[in-house]
Amino acid sequence: MQTLRPHGLECVTWNVHRGRGQDNRVDPERIVDVLASEVCAHGPEVLALQEADEETPPHAGLLDLKRIEAETGLRSIHSNAALRWGPQSDGFLGAILFLHPDFEITATHVLDLPGHCHRGAVVVDTRKNGKALRILTTHLSLGQMLRAAQMRTIGQFLFRRPEMPTIVLGDLNEWRPWGGLAFSKKLVGLRLSGPLRRTFPATRPLLPLDRILSDQPAAVREARVLDGPGIRVASDHRPLAARVLLA
């Protein structure tokens, strides 16, 4: 099993589009194949998936999590039923977070976010090499005002939590280089930053909808859009990877 890199965390986020590929075929097994052979081939320590449960209640799971864990060496943090939307779900409203088993998890939370499409966030407080780190994954709405309301909800929650370095990753649906209102420090309470890389659509990426951000200045390094024959057909997004330096 891989060991955690002392000089930073390798993070990946991918919207798997509920297993529906560019060929319009729904094939969750193909998603797992591509995760194992292409997306996680470089050994990430943090993996966030979005749209990884069914869209409508009961938001049943789609993916073979045990196989993902076996193939990647990572562990789903959702073994606790409180971190899943319901008994048939694998994650919380399609958001599933996997971490390297060497992480010490000190607190976990799920947040319902406002909007006409049910969205949520998963928040995990951890310790790595004796240092605190918060990891938050979410899938924000398409509309800017809804994204702003959702990030405001997240910011209000974080304001009540102990302060620690924070990573935010997921399909944030924000294409503007300046981040728009949703990532304003006045709105969120954190100054989040990270490189823009075009991830959507998978066949010819034009928009940087998927992001890996940190509240530590210049902490997100080596951001790159992953590519491969499986990646190009398995979903409508390409995965985004980055190395995040720890304070």
Describe the structure.
By secondary structure, the chain is α+β, with helices and mostly antiparallel strands. It contains five helices and eleven strands; from the N terminus they run E-H-E-H-E-E-E-E-E-H-E-H-E-E-H-E. A six-stranded mixed beta sheet has the order 3-4-2-1-11-10, covered by helices on one side. The protein has a five-stranded mixed beta sheet with strand order 5-6-7-8-9, with helices on one face. The chain is globular and about 45 Å long.
* Lateral arrangement of strands in the main beta sheet: 3-4-2-1-11-10
Assign a percent range to the helix content. Answer: 10-25%
Query: Which percent band covers the strand fraction?
Result: 25-35%
Question: Which ranges are low-confidence, i.e. pLDDT below 50, for 5 or more consecutive residues?
Answer: 1-6
